[in-house]
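User: quick one, sequence for these C-alpha cells?
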C-alpha cells in the first residue's frame, strides 16, 4: 500500500502567523503535517486546529538544538509517512545599531536563521532524496538587502538564502526542489499586529501580506512541474515602496 504523504513546517508560532497558515494549507491538500515550534501551548493549539482534510501534529522543538532537530525527523520516520516537503519558516527579527549590539545579539539571529536552516537541511535532504520533494525557506527583505538597524538580521537571513541557493544547485539535479520566498513587507499576523499596532495599522488596505495568500504561494512552489522550477519568488503588498 502507498504510504501517506507528509510535510514538515519548522517555525510555527501563534494561530495568526505564517507557520500555522502553512500547516493548514498543506493539511487541506491531504497531507499529514508536522508543525514544529518552541512553545508548547502553541503546539497544543496547533493540534486542535480544525482542517477539513489531512491532519496536523504539533512537535515542540528548538531548531537551533541539534538533538531536537534529530528528534523531529525521528518522529516523522516513526509515522511511516513519506516526507514530501520541508518548510523552514523559523525567524527572529531583531534590530539594533551596530555599536549597540554584542556578540550574543548577533549570534542569536544567526543561530535561528543560519544554523537552524543548516541542521534542518542536513536531516531533510537524505529523506527527500528517497522520493523527491521540496525544501522551502521563508526569507525576508533582509535576505537580499542589508540596512541598519537590521544589519545583524540581514547577515543571518542572507546566510540562510545562500545556503538555500547552494542546496538548490547541488540537489535540484537529484530531484529536490529547493526554493526561497522573499517576504518583502510585513505579514498580517500576530507578530507585527500585536507588537507594533500603530505601524501595522498605518499600512492601510491590503498593505500587509495576507498569511493565507503567502501559504498559497508556498503550495504553488511545491507543486511546480520539474520543467519549470523557481528558485526564488518575492511577495510584496501592492503599495509597498521597494
Ligand atoms: N512577520 C513579518 O512581518 C515578516 C516579514 C518578513 C519576513 N518574515 C519571515 O517570515 C517567517 C515567519 O515569521 P513570523 O514573524 O510571521 O512568525 P510565525 O510564522 O508566526 O512564526 C514563526 C515562528 O518561528 C518560531 N521560532 C523562532 N525561533 C525558533 C526556534 N529556535 N525553534 C523553533 N521555532 C522558532 C517563533 O516561535 P516562538 O513563538 O517560539 O518565538 C515564531 O513564532 C520568518 O522566517 C520571518 O523572518 C516575517
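Assistant:
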Amino acid at each position: 500500500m502507498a504510504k501517506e504523504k507528509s510535510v514538515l513546517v519548522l517555525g510555527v508560532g501563534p494561530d495568526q502567523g505564517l507557520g500555522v497558515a502553512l500547516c493548514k494549507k498543506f493539511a487541506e491538500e491531504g497531507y499529514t503535517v508536522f508543525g514544529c515550534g518552541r512553545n508548547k501551548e502553541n503546539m497544543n493549539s496547533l493540534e486542535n486546529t480544525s482542517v477539513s482534510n489531512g491532519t496536523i501534529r504539533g512537535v515542540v522543538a528548538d531548531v537551533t538544538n541539534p538533538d531536537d532537530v534529530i528528534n523531529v525527523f525521528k518522529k516523522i520516520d516513526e509515522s511511516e509517512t513519506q516526507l514530501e516537503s520541508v518548510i523552514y519558516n523559523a525567524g527572529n527579527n531583531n534590530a539594533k545599531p551596530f555599536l549597540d549590539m554584542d556578540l550574543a545579539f548577533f549570534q542569536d539571529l544567526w543561530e535561528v536563521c543560519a544554523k537552524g536552516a543548516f541542521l534542518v537541511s542536513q536531516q531533510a535532504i537524505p529523506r527527500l532524496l528517497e522520493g523527491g520533494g521540496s525544501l522551502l525557506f521563508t526569507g525576508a527583505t533582509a535576505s537580499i538587502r542589508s540596512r541598519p538597524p537590521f544589519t545583524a538580521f540581514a547577515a543571518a537571513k542572507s546566510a540562510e538564502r545562500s545556503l538555500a541557493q547552494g542546496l538548490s544547485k547541488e540537489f535540484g539535479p537529484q530531484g529536490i526542489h529547493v526554493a526561497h520566498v522573499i517576504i518583502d513587507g510585513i505579514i498580517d499576523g500576530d507578530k507585527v499586529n500585536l507588537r507594533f499596532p500603530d505601524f501595522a495599522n498605518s499600512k492601510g488596505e491590503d498593505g500587509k501580506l495576507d498569511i493565507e495568500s503567502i501559504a498559497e504561494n508556498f503550495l504553488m512552489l511545491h507543486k511546480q512541474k520539474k520543467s519549470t522550477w523557481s528558485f526564488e519568488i518575492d511577495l510584496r503588498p501592492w503599495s509597498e515602496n521597494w
